Amino acid sequence: MFEYEVMTAQHYDDAVTLWEETVGTGPNDRKDEIMKYLERNGSMSYVCIEGTTGKVVGTVLGGTDGRHGYLYHLAVNIAFRHKGIGRTLVNLSTGAMKKEGIHRCVAGVKDGNDDFWKKIGWEKPGRLNIYSVVLQKQ
Ligand SMILES: CC(C)(COP(=O)(O)OP(=O)(O)OC[C@H]1O[C@@H](n2cnc3c(N)ncnc32)[C@H](O)[C@@H]1OP(=O)(O)O)[C@@H](O)C(=O)NCCC(=O)NCCS
User: Looking at the domain assignment, is residue 62 inside a domain?
Assistant: First the structure.
């Protein structure tokens, strides 16, 4: 019923629709930005496709700086939640990271999702707070 594929340009339009409905989008989500990200990070980003419609119902963007793995835009269409899609997407992405020799993966987590991450075995390191800065305007 569900198929999982490495994310490519052909999934982009569906993925953006899903993100707009779930995690929201920003300037880094333009098609050229996402294609650059996918090229740079090989097969660490995945989509879940619903078999009867062929629509993308889940996504995860995975990447690495060569030391840590990072996950972004984990999102599952609300109609298909609690079916193991989120967990499977995370496992596919982190599995690809393991093959590249990455030992640790980090995700910025939106409020209200702590229980999901705990259920799939992730922990919140008490010492870690994430700060960010805009390096240049887009
Ligand atoms: C978070 C999200 C990706 C989970 O996707 P999902 O496909 O429903 O998750 P799974 O079915 O793989 O769930 C794995 C486990 O977590 C549990 N779980 C999932 N969402 C949960 C929630 N909101 N609260 C508590 N438990 C949750 C599931 O019941 C399941 O538990 P089980 O192993 O005992 O069956 C999905 O709710 C989502 O897209 N949310 C909106 C987008 C978003 O906020 N993304 C950012 C994530 S930081």
Answer: yes
What is the phi/psi pair of residue 10, to 5°?
-65, -20
Q: Is 101 among the domain residues?
A: yes
Domain assignment of residue 134, yes or no: no
Determine the structural domain holding residue 14 and report its residue range: 2-119
* Strand, coil or helix: 21: helix
- The per-residue pLDDT for range 32-47, each reduced to its tens digit, is 999 999 999 989 999 9
Ligand 1 centre distance from Cα of residue 121 (Å): 12
Low-confidence ranges of the chain (pLDDT < 70): none
Pocket test for ligand 1, best of 77, 119, 120 (most atoms within 8 A of CB): 119
DSSP character at residue 30: S
Here the CATH number for the domain that contains residue 86 is 3.40.630.30
Does pTM surpass 0.85?
yes
Ligand 1 atom with the shortest distance to the CA of 87: 12
Judge whether 133 lies within some domain: no
Q: Is the CB–ligand 1 distance for residue 116 below 6 Å? A: yes
